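Is this the right way to post structure tokens for a design question? Let me know if I should format differently. Anyway, here goes:
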């Protein structure tokens, strides 16, 4: 029977090999599934010397308002405001005639707070909530003693002095003209104008510049093809537009289309911050600005952009001429060399963009307005005599202009550190955290790879100029044998090596038997099926031997 044991052993080995091959196919399939491991980019950190990104600050404060649909005549009206904790919010309640019925200000103690206005007379109402520090506003409607009637309560715009207020006006079918009246300040201010729908879309957007509203030309205009004609002001104001509520009336064909109100809320002007950027020459100033990076040193073959983040000076600044000190009602932007030479003429700027909350002044590569090897003080100031000032408001930054080629314009990406696991389970993922640093001025992309046992996981990673990026790579260890294995992390010619244990640290790299089956305690490849096959082979061989003996 010695031969039977040989056959049995051979059968067991064959069954084990078959099971191993099946497992290998499954492992290969799993490896293929995990080969495209994902990369997680962490938020970019700035280098110690330079702020790498133009991070928005105080520019995305969401605000929401919620009320009941209806209230009983004797029921207190409650308004729930959702916003930013410790921020100031103004609440205005208007009745169907556009008359302000109540005003409250609240500094949120949490991100949500409910304010009560007490009982209000029956009617339709609109409540407007304004984030005071950033000017964002939302509104909603409700009814008291009955449902809110759509179209009764006027839209209300609340804005800062010196800002431009946009009022959309919808005209009836076939109507191309409407008369708009804005009146307030106890009758001291009254402007009348005709708006003309020239593009035939049935709507005219009327812009009212509150900074220039009281003097000079009537501060009304329409963007695009539409027009404002016959604009008149009854009298000039002795100064700037006062804080208060200005009633808006729109008439067409002798019929009142709408009544509303514009609330000019006197909050102090301020400048939040000022930044200096450099950017490469591109097909347009806007395209160059999109590639900007923060810097304290700009080469002469680069764009120099100065960005002032402001509140409340939008209407006061339309061009570089408004950034000069030509009177007590102006704001001032000055660029002065520290060596005592004359200041840079702002009219020599190659690019100026003014929008609400931001002023951009740019000097193109090779600008004659800037001197090489010169340090400049950049100051933005709201003059003390400004009627909407917040005291001595001002910001200052410094920038040095240097010769072209002084700094590397190309990406200079290096491998800074690798965080690797000491051990991972067999067939498990090995997660690597790789920190990259770009010491160049330009954003660039580089391949990052992890190699173990001849197998590679690689990804392309974008690293911003003057910044750090942290990337996570997951390596599928089912592709390598168990034991102590060397890894190599490569980035742009830089590499770091180390060792990690995959599965069993004492594995010799050859085939190993796995654990017993949890179901029947048998070794892999010697479960019930394999045992049955082996037994059948032995029985068949025995029968053949008996026949031959006979």
């Amino acid at each position: 029977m010695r031969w039977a044991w040989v056959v049995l052993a051979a059968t067991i080995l064959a069954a084990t090999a078959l099971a191993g091959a099946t497992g290998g196919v499954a492992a290969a399939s799993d490896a293929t599934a995990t080969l495209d491991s994902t990369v997680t980019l962490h938020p970019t950190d700035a280098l110690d010397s330079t702020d790498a990104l133009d991070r928005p600050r105080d520019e995305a404060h969401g605000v929401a308002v919620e009320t009941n649909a209806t209230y009983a005549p004797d029921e207190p009206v409650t308004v729930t405001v959702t916003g930013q904790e410790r921020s100031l919010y103004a609440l205005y309640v208007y009745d169907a005639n556009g008359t302000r019925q109540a005003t409250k200000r609240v500094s949120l103690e949490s991100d949500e707070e409910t304010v009560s206005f007490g009982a209000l007379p029956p009617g339709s109402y609109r409540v407007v909530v304004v984030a005071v520090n950033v000017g964002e506003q939302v509104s909603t409607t409700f009814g008291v003693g009955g449902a809110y009637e759509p179209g009764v309560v006027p839209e209300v715009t609340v804005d800062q002095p010196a800002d431009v207020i946009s009022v959309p006006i919808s005209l009836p079918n076939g109507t191309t003209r409407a008369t708009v009246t804005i009146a307030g300040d106890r009758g001291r201010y009254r402007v009348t104008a005709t708006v003309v729908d020239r593009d035939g879309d049935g709507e005219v957007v009327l812009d009212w510049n509150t900074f220039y509203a009281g003097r000079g030309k009537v501060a009304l205009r329409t963007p695009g093809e539409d027009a404002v004609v016959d604009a008149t002001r009854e009298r000039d104001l002795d100064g700037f537009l006062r804080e208060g509520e200005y009633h808006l009336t729109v008439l067409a064909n002798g019929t009142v289309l709408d009544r509303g109100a514009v609330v000019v809320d006197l909050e102090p002007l301020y400048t939040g911050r000022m930044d200096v950027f450099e950017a490469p020459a591109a097909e347009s100033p806007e395209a160059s600005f999109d590639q900007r990076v923060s810097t304290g040193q700009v080469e002469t073959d680069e764009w120099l952009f100065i960005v002032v983040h402001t509140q409340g000076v939008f209407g006061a600044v339309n061009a570089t001429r408004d950034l000069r000190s030509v009177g007590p009602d102006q704001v001032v932007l000055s660029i002065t060399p520290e060596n005592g030479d004359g200041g840079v003429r702002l009219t020599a700027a190659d690019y100026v963009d003014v929008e609400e909350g931001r002023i951009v002044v740019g000097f193109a590569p090779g600008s004659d307005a800037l001197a090489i090897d010169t340090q400049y003080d950049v100051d933005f100031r709201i003059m003390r005599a400004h009627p909407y000032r917040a005291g001595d408001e001002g910001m200052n930054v410094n920038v040095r202009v240097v010769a072209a080629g002084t700094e590397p314009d190309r990406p200079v990406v290096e491998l800074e550190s690798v965080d690797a696991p000491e051990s991972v389970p067999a067939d498990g993922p090995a997660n690597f955290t790789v920190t990259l640093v770009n010491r160049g001025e330009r954003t660039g992309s580089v391949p990052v790879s992890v190699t173990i046992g001849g197998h590679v996981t690689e990804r392309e990673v974008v690293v911003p100029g003057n910044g750090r990026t942290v990337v996570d790579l997951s390596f599928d260890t089912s592709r390598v044998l168990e034991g102590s294995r060397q890894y190599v992390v490569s980035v742009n010619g830089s590499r770091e090596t180390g060792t990690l244990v995959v599965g069993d640290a004492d594995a010799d790299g050859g085939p190993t038997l796995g654990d017993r089956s949890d179901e029947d305690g048998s070794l892999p490849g010697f479960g019930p099926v394999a045992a049955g096959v082996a037994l059948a082979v032995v029985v068949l061989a025995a029968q053949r031997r008996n026949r031959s003996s006979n």
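Format looks fine. Someone answered above. Worth noting: The longest strand covers residues 255-264. Confidence is low (pLDDT under 50) at residues 1-61, 509-526.
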